[in-house]
Amino acid sequence: MNANESDKFILTGAREIIALSGETLQINRQVEMLESALSDNPGLAFDLAKALIETVCRTILRERGRTPDVDWDCPRLLKETTLLVQLVPPGHSSPGDTTEQLKKITGGMQQIIGALCFIRNREGFASHGHDGSFIGLDGVHALLVAKTTDAIVEFIYKAHKNAFAQRVAVKVPQLGDEPEFNQYVDDAHDEIRIFSATYKPSEVLFRVDSEAYKGNLDDFKAQPPDAE
After folding, report:
1. Are 39 and 28 in contact (CB under 8 A)?
2. How far apart are CA 183 and CA 113, in angstroms?
3. CB under 8 Å to 145, separation ≥6 — which residues?
C-alpha cells in the first residue's frame, strides 16, 4: 500500500464515537491528528493510536462512574473497560455462549494493545530518542495500527452505549396466521361480491381495517372454547 492510499484512510469507527459522545474535543483532535500522521509521520501515528485507545477507555470508565487508576497502562485500561460493558446486544438469542467467545476476542484485543504499546515504545515519535541512523517502520505499519485501533475503539464504545446496529426480525402479521378466527369470520358473514370477483369477509377485514381485525381477534381468543 502506498502513501497516497494511506492519505485516504478515515477512522470511520472513531468518528462514529465522536457523533455518539457528548464530549468529543479530545477524541476529535486525536482522530484528526492520527489520520494526518499516517502519511506525514508514521512514528507519531503509533503514539496517537495508543493515546486514542486510552482516551476512549477513560471516557467510558468515567461515564460509568469509575475512576481509572493513574497507574493503569493501556492494556489494563482496556481490560477494565471491557469488564463493564455488555458485549452482545440486548435480547440476543444466546448471550451466555456468545459472550464467552467475545471475551476471548477482547482478551486478544488486550494482547494487540500490548503489542501496540511495545511498538510505540520502540518506534513512536515520542519514544526514547534514536540515533541518526535509525530506520523505523513504514506507513503501512502505521495504517495497520490505525485500522486496528479504529475497530477496537468503535466496538467498545458502541458496546458501552448499547449502540449496536441491531437487525431485529419484526414479524409482520399475515392473513394466514389465524386460520380458526378467519373461518369464524367467514362463517358469520356472507362473501363480498364486487362485479364478478368475490372476497372472503376475513380477508376484507384484514386488508381494509387491520385494527378492527386485531380487536375482534383478541375478543375471539378471549372467549371460552365452547363460546366460539
Report:
1. no
2. 64
3. 45, 46, 49, 116, 119
171: left (phi over 0), alpha (psi -120 to 50) or beta: beta
pLDDT digits (tens, 9 = 90+) for 110-140: 777 777 777 766 665 554 455 444 445 557 8
* Alpha carbons 95 and 88: distance in angstroms, whole number: 6
Q: Give the range among 51-65, 101-115, 178-192 with minimum mean pLDDT.
A: 101-115
Model's pTM, two decimal places? 0.59
- Residue with grid cell 457523533, as numbered in its chain: 19
Domain boundaries, the chain: 3-161, 175-227
Give dist(CA 125, CA 44) in Å, integer.
Answer: 5
Q: How far is the C-alpha of 179 from the C-alpha of 206, rounded, in Å?
A: 12
3-class DSSP assignment, residue 163: coil
Cα 186 from Cα 72, distance rounded (Å): 71
Cα angle value 93/162/172 (rounded, 5°) = 50
Helices (H) and strands (E) in the chain, counts: 10, 2
Q: Is 121 helix (H, G, I), strand (E, B) or coil?
A: helix
Q: What is the DSSP letter of 89?
A: -
